Amino acid sequence: MHITVAEILELVGGKLLSGDPAVMIEGFANLKESVKGDLSFFHDPRYEALLGTTKACAVLVPETWTKYPDGVACIGVADPSRMFETIVEKFGVQPEPFSPGVHPTAVIGEGVSYDPARVRIGPHAVIESGATIADGAEIGAGCFIGRKAAIGKDSKLYANVTVHTGCVLGERVVLHSGVVVGADGFGYEFDKGRHRKVRQAGIVQIDNDVEIGAGTMVDRARFGRTWIGEGTKIDNLVQIGHNVVIGKHCIIVASTAIAGSAQIGDYVVIAAQCGIAGHVKIGSQATLAARCGVTKDLPGGATYMGFPAIPVNDERRRLAGINRLPNLTARVKKLEDDGHAADLPED
Known about the structure:
Layout: E1 3-4, H1 5-12, E2 15-18, E3 24-25, E4 27-28, E5 38-41, H2 48-53, E6 58-62, E7 73-77, H3 80-91, E8 101-102, E9 107-108, E10 120-121, E11 126-127, E12 132-133, E13 138-139, E14 144-145, E15 150-151, E16 156-157, E17 162-163, E18 168-169, E19 174-175, E20 180-183, E21 188-191, E22 194-197, E23 203-206, E24 211-212, E25 217-219, E26 225-228, E27 233-234, E28 239-240, E29 245-246, E30 251-252, E31 257-258, E32 263-264, E33 269-270, E34 275-276, E35 281-282, E36 287-288, E37 293-294, E38 303-305, E39 310-311, H4 312-337
Parallel strand pairs: 4-5, 5-6, 6-7, 8-10, 9-11, 10-13, 11-14, 12-15, 13-16, 14-17, 16-19, 17-20, 18-23, 19-24, 20-25, 23-26, 24-27, 25-28, 26-29, 27-30, 28-31, 29-32, 30-33, 31-34, 32-35, 33-36, 34-37, 36-38
Antiparallel strand pairs: 1-3, 2-7, 21-22, 38-39
């Protein structure tokens, strides 16, 4: 890549606040890791010190910014982060374009519904009988599609994705490598001194525009369906138990575990490493901070922290009280040492 600051200005509709429009840009990087020839962006005042020391030759900054580092072309735009993304999309590494075809090593069972001229099936993929692959779908190398599973239009399965029997993916669903959809839910009953497996006879339904990160597991339902709503985005290494229902446009971050039959409303944000107990309900537009432990129903429209998860302000007060304990303990010890323990209030 070899483009000038002037070309960047034309692309993003920005204003040159400092520096030379003829400066040549050859790559992209963040403020800290940039070297000569890189374009970067600055949008958060917490990183002002990095802006002052960056080695980038050009930086996208807010239109109202007035502190320009020496020798750096500063380009004022309304949203530096989004404009940086726009530039990278145009000049950075491009995704491989869709090209239909079925690799000769793919194994396709009887009665599979698909148009070879309108789908892409990679090396060593296995598609069992009765499955449906809609137009525009991409099935990556080593994927497994079980009997009577359905893959919706323009969906993309990266290498080594598994979609088990009967599961249904909507349109434009993206499953990253290692995702398993429709493995058995974890259901056992203790009977006569042994753990007896409870048959998991339901399916998984994933609605349109859902994206699921690498290594995430979505268990099939014991009966009915495990259901992920339209537009929800799920990070890597998330566990979703049987009969869980997740609403529309949720965000679920890495290493979260959601136990069976939990219900998550629409527009819920669940940060990293949260644990949600079975059969609880979380209302729409709730936010769970990292490492929350949800043990009971939580109303929507609020932010929660801690274990067990409680409203964020209550948890902050609790933490503040805990942080004061060392000083309180020291005061009590001093009173005891001075012979004033009798002055302390009784419990």
